[in-house]
Target: Histidine phosphatase family protein
Amino acid sequence: MAETTVVHLLRHGEVHNPEGILYGRLPGYHLSETGRQMADLVAKTVAGRDVVALYSSPLERAQETAAPLAAAFGLVVEADDRLVEAGNLLEGSTSGDGLELLRRPRNYRYFYNPWKPSWGEPYLQIRERMRAVVEDARATARGHEAVLVSHQLPIWTIRMAAEGRRLWHDPRRRQCSLASLTSFTFDGGRLISIGYSEPAGSLDRRRRARGA
Model:
């Protein structure tokens, strides 16, 4: 009989970023106090599950999100570059309301191909590295569960690929909130379902501001 394995993709918690910088892969961006509470709440929520492997993006905010899980399960966090944030040529810029970057004439040269996208790491490249790390985690945790701490765009990209959807999209429509879990369930090597949950949703200020 085939074994059931679950690979959870956990987005990191809220980051301390009062200047509104598009930080991307830049070092030095850590969880805020709320972000640490999010990480603790996720760890408490999944504490009863059968997690035997824990991987994380090497960036500080992801490592800090993984730390309470490592303590809860007695695991060592394995840093994996394949889980890193998507590359972005605009990192270091002030993002403002998200559309501010589009309004700056000096940035126009980056937006010639939104389907690739031309301003950052290609979707196909993100898909392939995320597909590989999910498969490795599935093999390692066979018959059990694994948690992979990553970032919004990589998680959303592999979810869209797994669901057979196009990779280019409107970023405002991503279902991947802070400290959310996107869970892939496998029967043997076959993906049988994709689930989504927000164990720390009550702490997400942006969600509360929208009245969600």
